[in-house]
Design goal:
The protein has 991 residues and is mostly beta strands. 13% of the residues lie in helices and 38% in strands.
Length: 991
């Protein structure tokens, strides 16, 4: 998808993991038993086969290290030497929790040649606000002749900091430890954990970095106490709570904490894990913007999947060091629900390889069963990217990659490598001081090392990722790769990849390839490079789509377009967002939206099946809804985009792929503005004010349609794609329960007016149906061969779409009204979207040579820019959809262009308005009773010409002090123009 890509694609502060990437433990580390254990449970084991496993020296001069000289079990034990006091020894932070009774056993032995002594296991416990106390757990006399078992129990009741340590009565005696096991009378990995700070203490939360923690009433959300966090020196400074021993291998947990800040900032919830002193960081809840003074819940899920000897959860900020409050922390075990085994595997329902993006946590428990049952291939979200494999030049880290590849191999799954070259998640060192020669050498070294390691194990590689920018004249992204090396970085990447593994399939991968401009830019690049002999074997289409856009026909057009190049094609990152914009958020996704998502999967997989001869694989971007990058991108919200829900159960999205006959019914809606057309089979301009609503394709048969309301009845239009010309092909509109049947040859019943006309791809139907006020409509398109495609839903009657015209011309853009504007038609922002009165604007437009010019004369005697938010200041917003697509979200080239009364310019659009943010220039001048705005908006993605239609609207914002108190538009009455283009007016370009 577009960058930056939080969570899956973009590095986070102190985080390099996939989604809520989870932690696992293996033998030889403090290991939590599987969550299926009952009653007494093993909490941790230390066998020292893989290192000190978190144990370190206690006392000056003490040395702690593993040794092969003697072992109780296995091949190594822990040796403690250099002691000069009885309390010197080896220590670890134990996974103990208040109120739980633990049994601790260990084996001890004196170093050869050392005298006998008493070796003891002791807990140093420091109560919150109190002095340290020392509590014996177990002790016995040990010699160098044999291993001796130490055993005892331990429990505590007050919030405390703990250290478990081994000491000896012999001040200088060296000793060995091995096979230390901690068990509990209950299973704390299932019991959860809460912190409400009602004891007036930090409840075992500790300060991270230089921060200070202060329990107090002023920081309380509920009850009498919360925890204040101050004196932060870095963004990751804050409160931290150890959760070692509270999470079981392969188990899933929900974590949440409430936070509040006096200053606007973004806070998130993360986990730090360590193994033998090496830290790693994973995100549970991505930083979200807080409203100053309001409590906000940070929540997410986490699955334990890595070897650890240290594990803690902490709150951090995206940036800055402002203080904040926390309260009401909760960690809860999630009982796993078994996957369904009575439903067909997806891999058996499609004529190509179907796969899933996965992560280490998904190789455990029910997630692993889900993958191996339903998918034939896997691809890692992050583990093979450059930042994960070569964070420092020449220093490679393959632990995650090796684990995932070995797991896939053991489970007979194909493996897609993702990704060798990308403009994001590439360490800064790659570009530092790089000439073209240096950069290409670094690129070659990296590919040879990474691909070479997995030669014969990874059969397909995304060699280069997201290299196209359709908004550039040459269609190429201006990444550091391109700026330094031009196209040669792509040429080199594919050449080296082919040399390293001649049998691997090499893919160029990109997003938005289903859109015509991006499609063409990538097509031109692939054709050019292949003509040069660059070994591009396949084109990857990411397909991050939503429940409405883009039309499935766009996807099919793309696949058919690239088929002409003779390349294989793969869908590499499919998911279906339940949202059409970047601000809406559901507390619970409505059932009808999930049903719509299921039908969306159906129509997309219908395309894939029809195009199977051109597709070798389809990869769904995630295993299940509990781990998806869309949960935090572009904002933090509930967004379940995959076939399986967060309990790994099949959704309508699954049935859309596996068995569409089991999909729940849906009823669509269609805007039907007032309007009048001539029923003659010709396409009036009225129809071009809106895009046609697509009807799903069946075989070669597809259609799209529109409606206009009028007192005389309902005008309807159907554009049918059907190359097989048969006069009995039929379109039937059913409105108000009455079917109106129109044949391709023009035959229809008496009592209504209809006309048909042949088109280049099929035929067109126009009719005026005497439907009265009926809004329920069914459209059925059938061919003589028995195929049928239908649309069923409700019409939404709307006022007529306002239109205005913009003649060709060029004003001086200086905030004054010159003579060029005299002959231009004017419209007024008379549609109130906030308040009942306030500022209004009289608006005109002109165009020439790729630029749209807009004049707005605003009546508003009281002006303010006091609010820090641009939309709450006195300003004019100009909305432009160059292709008049009328979608419920923004396309990349749709823009919200704002100029305040002082001339301050801001731009909104898709994500960070990356494609349109440089399109606006303009000026503003204050005049008596208001101000004048002039804007020049470049529209490079379309050809501006006479009779072209642009989606267009204007809004006048009226501020009083720091608040926007009123707003008025020209056409759109919804107040959602900033995220939704479907109700904008239309601007016609004239000569």
């Amino acid at each position: 998808m577009r960058t930056p890509r939080p969570l899956v694609k973009t590095p986070r502060p102190a985080v390099l993991a996939l989604l809520s990437l989870a932690l696992s433990l293996v033998a030889g580390t403090p290991a939590v038993v599987p969550a299926t254990a009952a009653a007494a449970a093993t909490i941790a084991t230390y066998d020292f086969e893989s290192g000190a496993q978190g144990w370190g020296p206690r006392g000056s001069g003490v040395s702690v290290a593993t040794t092969p000289d003697s072992a109780h079990g296995g091949a190594r034990s822990l040796l403690t030497t250099g002691r000069t006091a009885t309390w010197h020894g080896a220590a670890v932070t134990p996974p103990f929790e208040k109120g739980v009774t633990y049994e601790v056993t260990a084996w001890a032995r004196a170093v050869a040649g050392s005298p006998s002594s008493t070796v003891a296991l002791t807990v140093q416990r420091t109560p919150a606000g109190g002095e340290a106390v020392y509590e014996r757990v177990a002790a016995d006399v040990v010699t160098d002749a044999a291993w001796v078992r130490l055993s005892g129990t331990y429990t505590y009741q007050a919030d405390s900091d703990l250290s478990l340590y081994a000491e000896s009565s012999g001040e200088t005696a060296g000793f060995l430890l091995d096979d230390i096991v901690v068990t509990a009378d209950t299973d704390p990995t299932r019991s959860g954990l809460t912190s409400d700070f009602e004891t007036g203490t930090a409840q075992e939360w500790t300060a991270r970095g230089g921060s200070a923690l202060t329990p107090g009433a002023a920081s309380a959300r509920t009850g009498s106490y919360g925890l204040g966090v101050t004196n932060r020196q870095a963004s990751w400074d804050g409160p931290s709570r150890t959760v070692l021993g509270r999470m079981a291998k392969g188990a899933k947990y929900t974590l949440s904490v409430w936070v509040r800040t006096a200053d606007a900032q973004s806070l998130g919830l993360s986990v730090e894990r360590q193994l033998d002193g090496t830290p790693a960081y994973d995100r549970v809840a991505a930083p979200r913007a807080l409203v100053a003074g309001e409590w906000t819940e940070l929540a997410g899920t986490y699955t334990l999947a890595y070897d650890v000897d240290f594990l803690s959860v902490y709150v951090e900020s995206a940036e800055g060091t402002a203080p904040f409050d926390v309260d009401d922390f909760r960690l809860a075990y999630v009982e796993p629900k078994p996957i369904q085994t009575d439903i067909p595997p997806l891999k058996d329902r499609v004529p190509f390889t179907i796969g899933a993006a996965f992560y280490r946590g998904a190789t455990l428990g029910e997630h692993a069963k889900l993958i191996t049952r339903h998918y034939g291939s896997v691809t890692p979200g992050n583990s093979l990217k450059w930042d994960a494999t070569e964070p420092v030049e020449g220093e490679f880290t393959f632990a995650d990659g090796d684990y995932l590849v070995d797991w896939a191999t053991a489970n007979d799954l194909e493996f897609r490598g993702h990704t060798l070259v990308w403009h994001s998640q590439t360490p800064a060192w790659v570009f530092e001081g790089a000439t073209k020669e240096i950069l290409l050498r670094r690129l070659e070294n990296h590919i040879r090392a990474v691909m070479g390691r997995y030669k014969g194990k990874i059969g397909t590689w995304d060699v280069v990722n997201e290299v196209v920018d359709e908004n550039q004249a040459d269609g190429l992204r201006r990444s550091p790769w391109y700026e330094i090396a031009g196209l040669d970085y792509i040429r080199t990447a594919f050449r080296v990849a082919r040399e390293v593994d001649p049998d691997a399939k090499l893919v160029i991968n990109d997003y938005n390839t289903e859109f015509p401009r991006k499609r063409q830019a990538l097509y031109d690049l692939v054709r050019k490079l292949r003509a040069e002999g660059v070994p591009i074997d396949a084109v990857g289409h990411q397909l991050h789509v939503n429940v409405e856009q883009p039309p499935a026909s766009y996807i099919e057009d793309t696949i058919e377009r690239f088929a002409g190049l003779g390349v294989d094609q793969q869908v590499t990152e499919l998911d279906v967002s339940v949202y059409t914009d970047f601000t809406t958020s559901y507390d619970t996704v409505p059932a009808e939206v999930l049903a719509l998502q299921g039908h969306r999967y159906r129509e997309i997989f219908d395309v894939f099946r029809r195009q199977a001869r051109h597709l070798s694989s389809v990869t769904i971007w995630g295993v299940a809804d509990d781990a998806t990058w869309l949960s935090s991108f572009p904002i933090t919200r509930l967004n379940p985009p995959l076939p399986f829900d967060d309990e790994l159960q099949a959704k309508p999205a699954y049935w859309g792929i596996a068995d569409p006959g089991r999909l729940p019914p849906i009823s669509r809606s269609l805007n039907a503005p007032a309007g009048t057309v001539t029923v003659d089979g010709k396409r009036d301009e009225q129809w071009d004010l809106l895009p046609d609503a697509p009807i799903a394709r069946t075989g070669h048969l597809s259609a799209a349609w529109q409606a206009r309301t009028t007192p005389a009845g309902l005008y309807v239009l159907a554009e049918v794609t059907d190359a097989t010309d048969d006069k009995t092909d039929t379109v039937t509109f059913t409105a108000g329960g009455t079917p109106y049947r129109i044949q391709r040859g023009g035959t229809h019943a008496h009592g209504f007016k209809a006309h048909t006309k042949k088109t280049a791809t099929g035929y067109r139907v126009e009719a005026l149906l005497p439907s009265g006020t009926a809004t329920g409509v069914r459209v059925a398109v059938a061919d003589a061969g028995g195929r049928e495609t239908t649309w069923t839903g409700e019409l939404v009657p709307l006022p007529a779409i306002r239109t205005t015209s913009a003649p060709k011309g060029v004003p001086v853009v200086d905030g004054t009204v010159d003579a060029a504007w005299n002959r231009v038609p004017e419209v007024t922002t008379g549609t109130r979207v906030q308040g009942t009165s306030g500022a209004t604007a009289r608006v005109k437009a002109m165009w020439k040579a790729g630029t749209l010019y807009v004049l707005a004369r605003v009546t508003d005697p009281t002006l303010s820019e006091e609010s820090p938010n641009a939309w709450e200041q006195d300003s004019v917003e100009i909305f432009v959809d160059p292709e008049n697509n009328k979608t419920r979200g923004y396309d990349d080239d749709d823009g919200q262009y704002r100029i305040s009364f002082t001339g301050r310019k801001t731009v909104g659009g898709t994500f960070d308005a990356f494609a349109v943010k440089d399109n606006l220039t303009g000026a503003a001048t204050r005049v008596a009773g208001g101000y004048v705005v002039e804007a020049a908006i470049r529209l490079p993605t379309v050809t501006l010409e006479q009779n072209a239609l642009l989606g267009f609207d204007v809004q006048a914002n009226d501020a009083t002090g720091t608040t926007r108190t009123a707003a008025a538009t020209w056409n759109d009455p919804t107040g959602r123009s900033y995220v939704d283009t479907s109700r904008w007016g239309v601007l016609r370009l004239t000569k």
